């Protein structure tokens, strides 16, 4: 059986880790490399760094963070934010990242998924999807630019297209649940993970160990990601894995 992965996410703004609720009200959570090294010691399975201030200067700052992190970490890590070309991917991978995550740039230029997969391999290309439920339509839709722009694309349709174009993994964030700490969006995660044949990382809403058990027991998610509960010491990687083992969920 394939083991489930637990992944801390570090949202990086101006060289610092920040965390908010539903993408707003950000607060400082520390130095990204120090936090990353601590998660490595805690036996996280992977890490995700997202540059949320991805101007040109933000990308320069992020490359420095990536280089420093690569020197400290023994676990794989993914970097996203402001990656708009194959050259940007190359720079981040050359700095030491194992994978790159693309979101807005993939929507604006879907061929970027194909170009990245062709040059670096599908295993390096993570397509991040920020999805929000529309009760009138009865479906989830994709948003870009940090959750500000409604694309009109249905989340499942876009996930399937991303797979067809060569994505190796989907990082699926529920905007409705982000930072709420009352559980992952199980219906959204279930729909996407059962309809595509690549790993899905569930993101948004983790508040305790049981929420991780629920997303693995009730959906086909391959991994679960969280941020603030790990950063502020509310839940540890060890306690999550211990709880999952007790529930019969295979973890590393």
TrEMBL record:
<comment type="similarity">
    <text>Belongs to the HisA/HisF family.</text>
</comment>
<keyword id="KW-0028">Amino-acid biosynthesis</keyword>
<dbReference type="InterPro" id="IPR011060">
    <property type="entry name" value="RibuloseP-bd_barrel"/>
</dbReference>
<protein>
    <recommendedName>
        <fullName>Imidazole glycerol phosphate synthase subunit HisF</fullName>
        <ecNumber>4.3.2.10</ecNumber>
    </recommendedName>
</protein>
<dbReference type="InterPro" id="IPR006062">
    <property type="entry name" value="His_biosynth"/>
</dbReference>
<dbReference type="GO" id="GO:0000107">
    <property type="term" value="F:imidazoleglycerol-phosphate synthase activity"/>
</dbReference>
<feature type="active site">
    <location>
        <position position="11"/>
    </location>
</feature>
<comment type="function">
    <text>IGPS catalyzes the conversion of PRFAR and glutamine to IGP, AICAR and glutamate. The HisF subunit catalyzes the cyclization activity that produces IGP and AICAR from PRFAR using the ammonia provided by the HisH subunit.</text>
</comment>
<dbReference type="InterPro" id="IPR050064">
    <property type="entry name" value="IGPS_HisA/HisF"/>
</dbReference>
<comment type="pathway">
    <text>Amino-acid biosynthesis; L-histidine biosynthesis; L-histidine from 5-phospho-alpha-D-ribose 1-diphosphate: step 5/9.</text>
</comment>
<keyword id="KW-0368">Histidine biosynthesis</keyword>
<keyword id="KW-0456">Lyase</keyword>
<dbReference type="InterPro" id="IPR013785">
    <property type="entry name" value="Aldolase_TIM"/>
</dbReference>
<keyword id="KW-0963">Cytoplasm</keyword>
<dbReference type="GO" id="GO:0000105">
    <property type="term" value="P:L-histidine biosynthetic process"/>
</dbReference>
<comment type="subunit">
    <text>Heterodimer of HisH and HisF.</text>
</comment>
<dbReference type="GO" id="GO:0005737">
    <property type="term" value="C:cytoplasm"/>
</dbReference>
<dbReference type="InterPro" id="IPR004651">
    <property type="entry name" value="HisF"/>
</dbReference>
<dbReference type="GO" id="GO:0016829">
    <property type="term" value="F:lyase activity"/>
</dbReference>
<feature type="active site">
    <location>
        <position position="130"/>
    </location>
</feature>
<dbReference type="Pfam" id="PF00977">
    <property type="entry name" value="His_biosynth"/>
</dbReference>
């Amino acid at each position: 059986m394939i083991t489930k992965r637990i992944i801390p996410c570090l949202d990086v703004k101006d060289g610092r880790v920040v965390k908010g609720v539903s993408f707003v009200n950000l607060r400082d959570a520390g130095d990204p490399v120090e936090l990353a090294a601590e998660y490595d010691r805690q036996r996280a399975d992977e890490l995700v760094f997202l540059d949320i201030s991805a101007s040109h200067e933000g990308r320069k700052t992020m490359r420095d963070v990536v280089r420093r992190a690569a020197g400290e970490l023994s676990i794989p890590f993914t970097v996203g934010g402001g990656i708009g070309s194959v050259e940007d991917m190359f720079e981040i991978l050359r700095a030491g990242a194992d994978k790159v995550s693309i979101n807005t740039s993939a929507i604006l230029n879907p061929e970027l998924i194909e170009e990245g997969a062709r040059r670096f391999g599908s295993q390096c290309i993570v397509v991040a999807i920020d999805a929000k439920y529309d009760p009138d339509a009865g479906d989830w839709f994709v948003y870009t630019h940090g959750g500000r722009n409604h694309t009109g694309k249905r989340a499942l349709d876009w996930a399937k297209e991303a797979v067809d174009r060569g994505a190796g993994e989907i990082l699926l964030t529920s905007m409705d649940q982000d930072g709420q700490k009352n559980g992952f969006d199980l219906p959204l995660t279930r729909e996407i993970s059962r309809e595509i044949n690549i790993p899905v990382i569930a993101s948004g809403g983790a508040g305790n160990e049981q929420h991780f058990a629920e997303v693995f027991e009730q959906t086909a998610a391959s991994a679960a990601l969280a941020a603030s509960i790990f950063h502020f010491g509310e839940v540890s990687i060890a306690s999550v894995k211990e709880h999952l083992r007790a529930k019969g969920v295979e973890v590393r």
